[in-house]
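For anyone still unconvinced, we reproduce a single protein record, the chain in one-letter code, the fold tokenised, and leave readers to judge:
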Amino acid sequence: MHKRLEPIIISPQTTVRDTMNVIENGVRNDPPAPWGIALVMENNQLVGIVTDGDIRRAILRGVSLENPIGTIMTRDPLTVRHSEDPAEILAEFHRIIRERNMPESRFHHIITLDDAGRLADVITPFELWRRSEVKIKTVAVIGLGYVGLTLALTLCEFGIRVIGVDLNAEVIEKLKRGEPHFFEKGLTTLLKKHVNKNLLLSTKLNEHASDIFIVCVGTPVNDRGRSDKSYLISAITEVGKIMKPHDLVILRSTVPIGTCRNLVVPILERESGLSHETEFMLSFAPERTIEGKALEELKTLPQIIGGINKQSLDNTSKLFQVFAHTIVSVDSLEEAEAVKLLNNTFRDVSFSFANEVSQALDGFGISGSSVIRAANKGYTRNPIPLPSPGVGGACLVKDPHLFVESARSTGYNLQLPLLSRNINESMIDFVVEKIDKFVSEHCIDPGRAKIFLAGMAFKGNPETSDLRHSTSVDILNILRSSYPNIEVFDHVASRNDLMALGANVAESPEQGFRGASCVLILNNHLEYPEWDIFELASTMQNPGMIFDPWGHYGKEQFHGLPQIQYTGL
């Protein structure tokens, strides 16, 4: 049952007066309940409905406000089997009222039941019609990376016809075989289900084939922290060349504030010959999912939408309402662009505080993680994140720079995001120095020492195969200048991607630990705490060091192994 129905559920004994209050107050909830109706339940079964119209007519007949609602409710209301496809619900609804020879105008609400006959939702025919209208549209998703492919398959799952476009022919061929080019839980199943059905794949846009264009290409930053918009410019140019009057363009790529209005609009108008004021629509709807949970979060996170005009906003909302329960409409393209930058910049800043705490307390021989856990325990106002061996991933590394670039365009110099970025990047050297110190103090020859790095993806929970902007890779690149014998391991990343790092790839944790002088467990994969760490550590060199910045283990687990130095952050 949809959560929004809970405030309008009553029993047959509820008075008419109280039912009026339930109907009146239901729409004030978040999310709001359907207007003008209450649902009468008994023993968890729907036994009737009552509308505000029913109550008005009853009062005119002289029914007392203190009477139980069961005396005036509609028993055995018309119900339809629930479906995620609004078109299916509408089709079933129309079939039933035709069979019963009932006018559609009688029904302001459609009540849906699940396969077990339990209440699922209450939807207006207009709401269903509005949702199903986009079903006749074809959506082109341009850029089939972590953002584009997950969105494309989610749209397919809800009945939208999607043309997925990516310039990388190798990626397209893999996808056509039902093979994703990155790991995401549930992705392979959806791809095999929809490829060559709801999902068509191509290396180029086709004229007249699409009505909605969603641009999901990358917007990296260069060495100076400035955005590289070349992929975006190329994609928007191609869209502009083939777009038709009344087409909708939605930008999903993360960009500096003002990019839609100052860059995207002029390109689209120049290439199409159309005016944004009357002839095409443009919105910005930022992607805010985390890798590893994208398919889940697309359906649960609020979708932020800013349009260049009301028509753009309304039509983008219709599309995203197909799979998203909550739409947050903001007043402009610029506000929507800013939302994504604020989300990720704030996260990076908060992580930098934890990482600086860790470095500061290290000089006292104090565990920053232990202190932070103690500080957080029972103190719910502002929990402090735990420290980490740097903060990686394409978003958190890039987006603070995009926010800084945005502010500079107005003459304001942001300081905190750049300072936080520097602190987080300094953790990489901080980790390497711990290894160098251990090797030096124990007179270990760097040329002979084996270093084992476990967890090369930029994060382990939720698990991902993404090595882009991984601090583990940065640590590897610094270590290799002094330590020629390095092995790497990751549960999720592909062997080809690991081999491309230029280090030996361990086939198992056992292989990596065996004979290692230093083991670094560099991400938070849920598998690591399950390892028999005592047995693994006993196969290391004497002396040996285990660096566990995520606190997967505890010092007590190494009792009996005096030759192993266990340390974290």
About this structure: The radius of gyration is 29 Å. The chain has 19 helices and 21 strands.
